[in-house]
Amino acid sequence: MLKIGCHLSVSGGFTAMGKDAVEIGANVFQFFTRNPRGGSAKAIDEKDIATFLELSIQNNFAVLLAHAPYTLNLCAADANIRRFALETMEDDLKRMEYIPGNMYNFHPGSHVGQGVETGIEFIANALNTILKPEQKTTVLLETMAGKGSEIGRSFEELRSIIDRIELTGKLGVCLDTCHVYDAGYDIVNDLDGVLNQFDKIIGLNKLYAIHLNDSKNPFQSHKDRHEKIGQGSIGLETFAKIINHPQLRHLPFYLETPNELPGYAEEIATLKSLYIENCNFNA
Ligand code: FE
Ligand code: FE
Ligand code: ZN
Fold it and tell me: Most buried pick, 46, 69, 90, 148, via CB within 10 A?
């Protein structure tokens, strides 16, 4: 079965997100752990979580993806900004233990002129503090479009972060289709080639999730503007290939397209109709 869902608003709590997911035909979803611009998180509501966990069993939800506020920067030049990012992520991961077995995605950060090497050191050091052997959440580095001084614009940059991590079993990668296409990986004309590169440099066993987004801009534009599925420069044919690809089809797919719930429901229905249910590539 296709594991497909979208980004949902966390403001009504977990049960509300679960109900929205069911309503739009999703069996996974992504949510911000708190206001995406930072700020404090809502108190944990254990009753809401218990109801939600019941609902997710009834509806066979697959793994969920939490997204860190995108303003956090683990590799800022300012030590206070770095510390704020680290403390926020530590707090998020504590809260994630209330819904164990899910994933937590974050943007590696922007090195803001100190250089990629320094940035990577900062990110790796922070992760070595944050990751704990007992945690039940897998932390994911997101592939980035390469806007400004963003780290994570290439598979090599992500690999050099992973190389410095002690608890590598707690760390994986989330591939964003809009971002990698913007960064210069041609998933439209050479999906197999891009996946081979990913496998050689990072290892496909490190790929845990896909952000499914079309792009408003042409190949290699480094802009990071998401478009609705099939309405951008990536196009529906490529998304059909991605969700059915033998090396990707088992992964959870999360839409982050510019949509409200009805638009997401439509995209989910379209992608489900393109998914080949019983194909056996090894036969
Ligand atoms: Fe993101
Ligand atoms: Fe994304
Ligand atoms: Zn993006």
Answer: 69
